[in-house]
Amino acid sequence: MRWTTTPTDRHDHHPQHQSSTSAPPPPTPGPQSPVADPLLQDFLTNDLGLLTLAARHALSLDQLEAWLTSDATQRTLATIERLAAIRARAVAAQAAPLATTRLLNLTADPTTPPETARKAATTLLRAHRVPSPPPRPAGEVAR
Q1: What is the pLDDT averaged over residues 53-82?
Q2: How many CA atoms lie within 13 A of 136 on its CB side?
Q3: Model-wide pTM > 0.70
Q4: Exposure on the CB side of residue 56, measured as CA atoms within 13 A
Q5: Which of 51, 78, 111, 140 could form a disulfide bond with 136, CB atoms 3.0-4.6 angstroms apart?
Q6: Burial track 108-138 (b if 16+ CB lie within 10 A, e otherwise)
């Protein structure tokens, strides 16, 4: 487990504030950089089972659970989830024009199978929030 000092600790024990004979205090647990935490990196990689993950980091399952459910880890995971959602929306927005063009091409290409063209058209309408027409009343014939 990595340990960091809190901003208060760094200030209180700055070389200008301590005598040359005093030893620095032991580090206190604090927030970690997700990049610097190999356990978090391995957990997020998702190619390891939980038993393998615990063994790789010399942890029991109880210790792994304690780490995963700790307030600090939960805050880090919540931040990662928020950032991933922001990233996914940005990537989707960036890809939308090309996807729209490709779907339009499918609907206009006479060699596209009818079911594929229908699905492409439906996807375009949904993506651009075009409401479906109301159903025809029973007995009404399409024009």
Answers
A1: 94
A2: 6
A3: no
A4: 13
A5: 140
A6: eeeeeeeeebeebeeebeeeeeeeeeeeeee
